[in-house]
Amino acid sequence: MRPLAILAGGLLLIWPAFLNGYPLVFSDTGAFLHQVAPPPSGPLVIWDKPHVYGPLLLAFSARATLWGPALAQGLMLSWLLWLAQRALRGSAGTGAHLLVCAATALLTTAPFTAALLMPDVFAPAVLLAMLLLAFARDAMSPAEALGLFLVAAVGIAAHLSHLPMALAIVALALLVTRRPAAALRAAAPLAAAIAILLGTNLWGHGRASLSPHGATFLLARLQADGPAAAVIKERCPAVGWYLCAFSDRLPMDSDEFLWAPDSPVNRAPDGSARFLGGALLSPEAGVIVAETLRTRPLEVAQAMASNALRQMGLVLAGDTLVADHLGVAVRPRIAEAFPARELAAFDAARQPRGELTGLAAPLRWPHIVMLAAGAALALLAWWRTARQGDVRRLGLVLGMLVGVTANALATGALSKPHPRYEARILWLMPVIAGLALAPRRR
């Protein structure tokens, strides 16, 4: 019964895909598909993305259908929730698991992440896997522990924002348990993820780096907040930076800075287009970021804190439903690599036609209510588990709170606040808190 329960739970957790008639996609989904596209357009090493999630899409779709990766994502989260129930309640039952998955699917933002073909799904998966390894290893079989290790390692490597969250969980494991073994269990997948990133970037970019061009993203954020723009205005034109020619246009929105066709990154002062402009800018970006951090540390810290707080308040999943850029970013990748029936299914879906946002809007009203209740439940669970001295439950509850906070810092402060960034993980708050407060099963 257990496999059937996990399968049923996984299907519940991707219900927006069934409503849409196709797995949910985002403009960046096209880039991940491009990583593993067949010749002549691929495979392609993308300058701004780890070469991890694209190969996973290929492995689980087999270039037959993208329903494969969507189902795998639902099953992964369902399996993790099964293990979380066992860790928090002593055992997991079929009926209880289906109830938890149904409530999670109907009342939280989880299904809008589970059904979305983006590495965002690994944010909650990494957090749950690391917490279970650190605080509930004795409740797992060796095979389950290996599965948790693989989920966490691949998930951390799939998106750079997961690295700070993983570091926070390793530190928390040491603080709560005061045992190096717990921290080492959490650190093992982090070390494996670092090895994956170093290896894939050495292969793809010729540099053994965690993020060969990450400085461009930091510069985009720091100039949008003001400190880096001020440094550029002060130092130019004497320093001879490329961006000196655009100092009068800064600061500007970070997304516009990175992706707009006429931005300083993508169009030179003479009007010519700059192919891979973000990668070309990264050496100079590193210099400007270092100078900004050296001369304006307080301004940077204030901006980061403000962005993180804004990110914590953006909790709805609406930006995962839009049709923006899907026709030019995703459709060609499906057309070149998948059978004609797959392209027809994509074209017939509601999302590319702009119908999904309105259709799903009435189904999202419980999210704010559930998150508000979840915050109260989390504080209550923290107080109760600390009072009882239950290290396992305390670690899972406190780790969940640390994880969602670290996620907001990593995404809002280092990138830009977007609704999907916190919606992808904040749903764990009511789920984990509710399981921690539930009576133990015999």
Largest sheet data: none
Global shape:
globular
Count of all domains: 2
Give me the secondary-structure category.
mainly alpha
End-to-end separation: 18 Å
Helicity level: 55-70%
Description:
- 68% of the residues lie in helices and 0% in strands.
- The longest helix has 26 residues, at 180-205.
- The chain is an all-alpha fold and 442 residues long.
- The chain has helices at 2-13, 15-20, 27-35, 53-61, 67-89, 94-107, 110-114, 122-135, 142-158, 162-177, 180-205, 214-225, 227-235, 254-259, 277-295, 297-313, 326-329, 331-337, 340-348, 356-360, 366-388, 391-413, 419-423, 428-437.
- The mean pLDDT is 94.
- The chain has two domains: 2-159 and 161-207 and 317-437, no CATH class; 214-295, no CATH class.
- It is globular, with a radius of gyration of 22 Å.
Characterize this entry briefly.
With 442 residues, this protein is mainly α. It folds into 2 domains: 2-159 and 161-207 and 317-437, no CATH class; 214-295, no CATH class. 68% of the residues lie in helices and 0% in strands.
Output the keywords:
442 residues, mainly alpha, 2 domains, 24 helices, 68% helix
SSE arrangement:
Layout lengths: L1 H12 L1 H6 L6 H9 L17 H9 L5 H23 L4 H14 L2 H5 L7 H14 L6 H17 L3 H16 L2 H26 L8 H12 L1 H9 L18 H6 L17 H19 L1 H17 L12 H4 L1 H7 L2 H9 L7 H5 L5 H23 L2 H23 L5 H5 L4 H10 L5
Helix pairs in contact: 1-5, 1-6, 3-4, 3-18, 4-5, 5-8, 8-9, 8-10, 8-11, 8-22, 9-11, 10-11, 10-22, 12-13, 12-15, 13-15, 16-22, 21-22, 21-24, 22-24
